[in-house]
Design goal:
Largest sheet: 3 strands, antiparallel
Order of helices and strands: HEHEEHHHHHHH
Strand content: 5-15%
Number of helices: 9
Structural class: mainly alpha
CATH class of the largest domain: Mainly Alpha
Radius of gyration: 26 Å
Shape: elongated
CATH superfamily of the largest domain: Winged helix-like DNA-binding domain superfamily/Winged helix DNA-binding domain
Number of strands: 3
CATH architecture of the largest domain: Orthogonal Bundle
CATH topology of the largest domain: Arc Repressor Mutant, subunit A
């Protein structure tokens, strides 16, 4: 289902309004500074006596009084492993008519240059193919979630890129929730000698005095 979670570090009546409390009856209070703050959140005292570190009071509309529970600390890496495992249990089923529609992003971002097709370039019309291959080679591992984070793309597109890499022998086959092995070690193995490197993309620093372009003329 869909879960709506609203959080604030300022438990005052102008933030946690009566309208919010009426529409969201389930509430959690962590350690607060005063009884007034506790009443604002869960309509009773007690949160001011909590110990911190995940100690909380949980209240719902059908509970006569708040229940004290302990919140677990879950790191981002653990969440990623769980979601990767769940994705591997059953392949997603997408509506092809929806997926095939172009997506317009109204945000800031660069445009991945089209360097042309080198050897082994067979990625359809995806203009992020070279950059996706570069990401998995540099990280020495390949996963859909990695491409989603690094390239800021959706799951469907990242999954198709990974599948294309497997078809072309760039990455190995899936093995549970573990990242796939990368079977190549350089961009040249995929695109030939015409592959764009960091110098071509302007990633190198400007020349320093130790390596000035006019040193030979000055001497």
């Amino acid at each position: 289902g869909i879960h709506l979670v609203l959080a604030t570090q300022r438990p005052s009546v102008d933030v946690i309004t009566g309208l919010i409390k009426a529409n969201i009856p389930a509430r959690i209070a962590f350690t607060v500074a005063s009884q007034i703050d506790s009443r604002t959140i869960i309509d009773s005292m007690g949160a001011e006596k909590l110990l911190g570190m995940g100690d909380m009071l949980f209240s719902t509309a059908d509970m006569p009084k708040p229940k004290r529970v302990q919140g677990a600390l879950i790191m981002g890496e653990e969440t990623q492993r769980v979601t990767d495992f769940l994705r591997m249990q059953r392949p997603p089923q997408y509506d092809d008519e929806v997926v095939s529609q172009p997506v317009v992003l109204n945000g800031k971002g660069g445009v991945v240059a089209d360097y042309g097709g080198g050897a082994g370039h067979d990625s359809g019309d995806d203009n992020m193919w070279e950059e996706a291959v570069r990401v998995v080679i540099e990280n020495k591992k390949a996963s859909t979630s990695l491409l989603q984070r690094r390239l800021r793309i959706g799951y469907g597109r990242a999954s198709r890129l990974i599948d294309q890499m497997e078809e072309q022998g760039i990455v190995g086959s899936a093995s549970g929730a573990k990242p796939r092995d990368v079977l190549v070690s350089s961009m040249d193995e995929v695109f030939g000698t015409d592959a764009p490197d960091g110098d071509d993309m302007g990633l190198e620093d400007a020349p320093t005095n130790d390596n000035h372009p006019f040193d030979d003329v000055i001497r």
